[in-house]
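Question (not urgent): is this output format expected?
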Amino acid sequence: MKNAENTLQDTDTASLEDFYRIKQLPPYVFQEVNRLKAQLRSQGADIIDFGFGNPDLPTPKHVIDKLIETVQRPRTTGYSVSKGILGLRQACARYYKRRFDVELDPEDEIIATLGSKEGFANLAQAITAPGDIIYAPDPSYPLHAYGFVIAGAKIQGIAAITADEYLTGIKQALAKADKPPLAIVVCFPSNPTGEVTDLAFYREIVAIAKQHGIIILSDLAYSEIYFTTPPPSIFQVEGAKDVAVETISLSKTYSMAGWRMGFAVGSKRLIHALARVKSYLDYGAFTPIQVAACAALDGPQDCVDVARNTYKARRDVLVETFKDAGWEIPAPDASMFAWAPLPTGFEDMGSLEFSKLLMTEADVAVSPGVGFGDHGEGYVRIALVENEQRIRQAARNIRQFIAKSGR
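Got this back:
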């Protein structure tokens, strides 16, 4: 039966290569890790899973209560509107004013999206012509590159372990280019590295974009998961609205990942383009979810502090216990991820093979860095989605694994 299943998977994969857009996409390395994880669990293994950035914290009670209240009202379960209900867009504007002191017009500068991922992907569809060049950070969340690849663009990955490295790479790429790219993607706090940046970075990137007529797409999904200085928004830079769109998400801030609720904000021209595309593709999020999202943005924010403190505590336990186990991991300044170089003695193995070995030998799942781009090789991403007890158990398993390996 196992051989038959493998044959069917191979046949399905081969048949997918008949499709033009599928052929533009590389093999999804996370699928290989997930397949092994499922196999080991089916055999009874207790996998401590740091691989998938799926928040395990509960959605705040006042948000759930608002969902339940709203879904019982007449006429709230029909079609919504693709750009989001006005009250939700107004709540987003209030958030930007409160958090960044940035004024946004709910009518022309904000659109609600089905999570930031959908907004980003559909914006790529809205603005991209075949052959357009996009500068994207490497390593980065795969959608930052492949949302545009699916839309027909060509990606120029630029090393981005730090913000300074990325900015230097952009300048060097522009100096060598025959023409500027259509767009530059930025993502700070970064998924996967947890790196942050400051307003000086955004001032420079906005100036570059204005000089060369480039669009900036800023992913700010981890705006509230920080452990030092609160991350800025690109719109704190004067004139950024002329060239930029920013995506944000409620997924991590309020542990609402499955609710699929986010926003794209900024340039009227780009927001209108996204709204035009979305009007053909969806009717917006379920209205009770949008009303509950208003409760999240406008309601008590102590739940955000609790989430932030929980991730920080987990980060600290992970860094301390993994170091004791023989694996040095830098402490991230933000996000719910640690970006970890492969342990000493395993560097030559590659991130994919190391991730599989760690799972089979230590019952610990992580994401191979190569899945986030070529410059991610030599690293793994560790999501802070297991409690402190499980993190300590993972460290014990890893200590035994490293000792037994003889490396």
